[in-house]
Amino acid sequence: MVFLEYLPGNSIFHRLDVRSKIFWLIAVLILSFIFNDPLYVLGIMGSVLFIAFYIGLPFNRLRTMFQPLIPIMICIVLFTGFGFQPDYFVRDASRKVLLDLFGLPITVGGIMIGITFFIRLMIIIVSTSIVTLTTRFDDFIALMRKIHFPYALILAVSIAFRFIPTLMKELETVMDAQQARGLDLERGKFIQKIKKRIPLMIPMLVGGIRHAENLAIAILVRGFGASKNRTILYDISMSGIDYVACALISLATLIGVYIRLIGLGIL
Amino acid sequence: MYITMHQRNSNHDDNIVEVDCLRFRYAGSEKFALNGISFKIRRGEFFTIMGQNGAGKTTLALCLAGVIPHYIEGEFEGKVLVDGIDVASHTIPEVTTKLGLILQDPEDQIVGVTVKDDVAFGPCNLGLSKEIVLERIKNALKIVRLDGYEDRETFALSGGEKQRLAIAGILALGPNIIVADEPTSQLDPVGKKEVFETLLQLNKEGKTIIMITHETDWAMKYSHRIGILSSGKLVAIGSPKEILSKLGIDGLTRYGIRPPQMPHLFYRLSQKGVILENSDTWLNVEEAAYKLSKLIAKGSSKDVLPLNKYDKRYEDKEKAIVVEDLWHIYPNGIEALKGVSLQISKGEFVAIIGQNGSGKTTLVKHFNGLLKPTRGHVYVFGMDTKNVTVSALSRLVGYVFQNPDNQLFAPSVKEEIAFGPKNLGYNQDEVEKMVEQALDFVGLKGLENEHPFRLSKAERQLVAFASVIAMRPKVIVVDEPTTGQDWAGTYKIMNMLKKLNEEGHTIIIVTHDMNIVAEYAEKIIVMHGGRILMEGETRKIFYEIEILSRAYIEPPPIVLLINHLEEYGVSPGILTVEEAATELYRKIKGEL
Predict the structure, then answer these.
(1) Is the pLDDT of residue B6 over 50?
(2) Is B447 within 8 Å of B368 (Cβ atoms)?
(3) I want to staple B108 with a disulfide (CB 3.0 to 4.6 A). Which of A62, A214, B235, B577 is the partner?
């Protein structure tokens, strides 16, 4: 799962504080949402891709995430084509009706907005991947502590994360065990297929409870709650490059907002 | 690593653990899990607790760590003193700095994503300074020999490494006493050795160790004292020698403890009238061989067991499973099998052995189509598994998984067992008959309407087992039939497999338990590094001690003993205590 992995590296982006990275992520999202002209959004996408190449993002793994989304994306482009009346658009070129299907006009602007949606979705996936791939899990935990999450919650998140591979392996075993008893997961109609998940879900659920019970004991005997002031072993800190980066990101965002305010970048 | 047993002359008043009239009953339970237990453990002692599943061993460990009565509810009476503090009147975190508890399943004790994070959890909870925490992490990892692993991700560790990490996590809290509840039961022989050696090392460095285990030989060899629990009572306590002479082999068996092989052999010989001095002490193989060799006439004629009969017996039989040049490469690129070829005839009882990662499980998962060959072919009764689905193959090959909890899902035992036959498309009447017979076979009649989750672990294992045999597969594959089972449970399942085998089923077990292999399997397939290292009759293979050691396999002590005695004319090929007793009696009697 590309979202949960850490891509070791020593790029500037890796070295940025997690807060700077999240600030960058928010800025990218704001910019890609205030414009609806695909050209402008494409420009933002270009800058995101530049960083993606720079950190060496594993694109082949991203593809496996994209593939199931492709039909949905095509639908989005088609539906938005219908979704907007000509007078929604500012520019004359966008108001042009390509085809009128019984009072539902397909406008040039509608198709363009569809394309914008498509690019925005890609931006969201790639930019979040960039942040998660370049940030250690510890940094996220430290961030949660910085914004005063209760420790019990932080521990829960941390354990959940640590248990993902364990539970995946367990699911595999459960699937094997039930298939060995003749459960055919491939065949059957939709409803049957859902019913066939029950023999998988229940052992997983019961297993989860068993893990939780044992973990509770394991955590207690390791002194959970012994001291109100837990030792902080690892902390995050903003350094020089963070301030420079944040200034640049702010500047870029302000310029973007200004461009939008003077009426550019909309259809 | 070998620590000689020695009686300690230390001051008897220096008791680090004192348990007095301890009774505990879980909330909602009628029976007392612990029913009046009193004992003392000396500082620096290596103390082992043994007993059947359900005897109260884990409950006792939880009481020592303060989890009972502070976290688990129930009726608690008596007193537990740990390194000078009364557990009942101190909080769990206060107890943890005195006594650390290691649990059975290493998986459930790891909270950190990386090794360092995980060890840090305890000392950080205590609020120690950053420098001290880092120092403790370093020391703890060094003791369990995981130094250099700091930044490794915990999920990628082996079982033995995970359990050592759990020990490090406890050590970092700085306790003087370590309680380990069956720390090796989920591990392979290599992992077992790692964990046992780590505990021994800690004991050498002054820690008091209290360990719960089913490994009799190990316990007898290394413990200063052993305590035996049965039905919530401490029925025996003393040095291994005292335990053996007090209980004898029959006593051990009565309390569900697998007797160590050397004393067991001496006991059987004494029953036959061969009296050996000190026959009630635990002995290692060399000592036993030395004693016996003195009794056996030197240079007496060598009888050779008819070894070649076996291979002929199955020569003309129908082949249940044929594997031809099987390669399996996982999507992550790991070559788990590298050209395996084998044949298993109908009616054979085969054991597949080898360390973790040798390809055993990958191999047997091909037998019922859960995995398909990357290259090569697997034929089940002549059918190429490439062209058949898992559910179609499940008619022919049953597969019992290690952990019953990975498959139980139905609200009653009956429905659980009916799941397989129903999937195969049998009608209502047939299904009921099949369920009935399976229940009868495993001896769970009368429990058919119980909820599987309300049964004990051993019973759940039987339900899982019944749910597979109800489908009447011709071949039954059992993955680790003995993990997490006590001696009695192990033998119950193994005897059922034997019975099925006698009825004509082909049985394939994957196991680390060499005693079981020696007693039940006719044929062994030794896997090593994705290839078959050796294959053949158990009587032959187990005496290839050199080659087996390459796959980190050690045959049972009785085989090693007979191997030592070969130069005195004892014929190899012996696998069990009974066989050895008969053969040695014959040899010794010739001399007497």
Answers:
(1) no
(2) no
(3) A214
Q: Which residue matches tokens 């496996």?
A: A64
Give dist(CA B479, CA B301) in Å, integer. Answer: 42
H-helix or E-strand containing B591?
A: helix B577-591
The answer to whether the Cβ–Cβ distance between A223 and B128 falls below 8 Å is no
How many angstroms separate the CA atoms of A111 and A114, rounded? 5
Res. B8: pLDDT tops 50: no
Helix (H) or strand (E) holding B464: helix B457-469
Mean pLDDT of B330-334: 89
> Helices marked H in chain A — which ranges?
12-15, 18-34, 38-55, 59-66, 70-83, 92-95, 108-134, 137-146, 151-180, 190-195, 198-220, 240-261
Distances (CA, A) of B157 to B114, B193, B436: 10, 16, 43
Distance CA B513, CA A39 (A): 67
pLDDT value at B308 more than 60: no
Give the pLDDT of residue A5.
75
Q: CA of B538: how far to CAs of A67, B555, B567, in Å? A: 52, 10, 21
How far is the C-alpha of A52 from the C-alpha of A40, rounded, in Å?
Answer: 19
**Residue B230 near residue B253, CB atoms below 8 Å:** no
Write the residue in A161, A162, A233 that is nearest to B124 by C-beta: A233
Residue type, A168: M
Question: Hunting for tokens 């870029």 — which residue is that?
Answer: A252
Q: Which of B167, B364, B391 to mutate to test binding with chain A, by most A CBs within 10 Å of its CB? A: B391
Smallest Cα distance from A129 to chain B, Å: 19
pLDDT in tens, B105-115: 889 999 998 99
Overall residue count recorded for chain A in this entry: 267
Quote the CA–CA distance of A232 and A248 in Å, as a whole number: 31
CA–CA separation, B481 vs B566, rounded Å?
A: 32
Contact present, B44 and B200 (Cβ < 8 Å): no
Q: Is the dihedral angle over the CA atoms B420, B421, B423, B424 positive or is it negative?
A: positive
DSSP B153: B
- List strand residue ranges (DSSP E) for B73-162, in order: 74-82, 85-86, 99-102
Whether the CB of B62 is below 8 Å from some CB of chain A: the reply is yes
Query: Within an 8 Å CB–CB cutoff, is residue B173 touching chain A?
Result: yes
The owner of tokens 């008969």 is B582
As for the ipTM of the complex, it is 0.87
Amino acid at A196: K
Q: pLDDT tens digits for B184-222? A: 988 888 888 889 999 999 999 999 999 999 999 899 989
pLDDT at B309 > cutoff 60: no
Q: What is the pTM of this model?
A: 0.86
The pLDDT-based confidence of B304 (bands split at 50, 70, 90) is very low
Give residues with Cβ within 8 angstroms of A164, minimum separation 6. A1, A4
